[in-house]
Design a protein that fits this description.
This protein is mainly α. It is 52% helix and 0% strand. It contains two helices and no strands. It is elongated and about 40 Å long. The termini are close together.
Length: 50
């Protein structure tokens, strides 16, 4: 998986980590939407994000 640094582009000190939730969620969901149809992950599987 391609590494993406969301911390530098979306972090704003006045809002804290809440601002990072949306881009992180979007990246994780996008990757899962690619992998599920390929059969690389499915029901009961555990996925991890670094």
């Amino acid at each position: 998986m391609e590494s993406t640094d969301v911390s530098s582009e979306d972090y704003r000190a006045d809002f804290g980590a809440r601002e990072l939730r949306c881009p992180i969620r979007t990246l994780v969901e996008a990757r899962l939407w690619e992998e599920i149809p390929k059969g690389e992950t499915g029901t009961g599987d555990t996925v991890a994000a670094d």
